[in-house]
From TrEMBL:
Transmembrane segments: none annotated. Signal peptide: none annotated. PROSITE patterns: VOC (PS51819). Residues 3-108 form the VOC domain. The lineage of its organism: Bacteria, Bacillati, Actinomycetota, Actinomycetes, Propionibacteriales. InterPro entries: Glyas_Bleomycin-R_OHBP_Dase (IPR029068), Glyas_Fos-R_dOase_dom (IPR004360), VOC_core (IPR037523). It comes from Kribbella steppae. This is VOC domain-containing protein. It holds the Pfam family Glyoxalase.
Amino acid sequence: MFVGSHVIIYSNDADADRAFIADVLGFPHVDAGAGWLIFRLPPAEIAVHPTDGGERHEFYLMCEDIEALFDKLAGAGVEVSRDITEERWGRLAGIPLPSGAGLPVYQPLHPVAYNLPD
């Protein structure tokens, strides 16, 4: 029925954030025209959480080893913008985009769905 998902990050400096995602994070991409890059993401999953407030959506990049990821990113000059915290569901941290926006990253400690067979 569905062939994928499309995530949008709104940015105050889209060109810088696109360059960071392409050059530093190394995500493969296509140019949809005039430098409008669209990136291939790793496999994904979706969770639905209850809320008492308004609806909102969040985007996290998942990794298998958060320390190894941050060691690799440090080699590219990327500093952690949100120190690692231990949550019951995973190890959570964040990296800054050039625009100043934070990009949450986590190492799941829960069963994952992104590698389930079709």
